[in-house]
Sequence to fold (174 residues):
Amino acid sequence: MHVPGIKTESAVRAAVLAPIFEREGELHLVFIERSTDMPVHSGQVAFPGGVCRPEDGTALATALREAEEEIALRPSDVTVVATLPDVHTMTSGFVITPFIARIPDGYPFLANPREVAGIFSTPLAELRDPARRRRILRTLSDGTEREVPAFFVGAHVIWGATEAIATEVLNAAL
Fold:
């Protein structure tokens, strides 16, 4: 997703893992709710992930490291099934490389309380339901207001880069 005004060469590189698992023949997607103490995107629904560090070597290594740090998802329990197109955040200057990964059902996640306020999953079929989609008005970090697409899942509103990545997951041949 290209967002006007974002220059990839000056953007901060980041990577996320979009974990999926199968339960009773249905695929589910795992999300986190970021801690309100986080300096960027606090309190928002996201995927486990973060800023790429030079020592990571690859975006995938970043996504795996961050998933382990944030929700205790061990890399040995992950099977990467797809790399999705990069997503640019609207105003915070991140270019995110997302990876879809299969994980076992019933995974014993453990939220890192400094970074993660909660962990939840939803069936992909629920995200495909048109009743879960609408456009909302959001005030962005630069102070501008913009109408953006969103998913509504229970009490959670999924918008921004996370909405764009979730939409790509739905479009992927899984």
The longest strand covers residues 12-23.
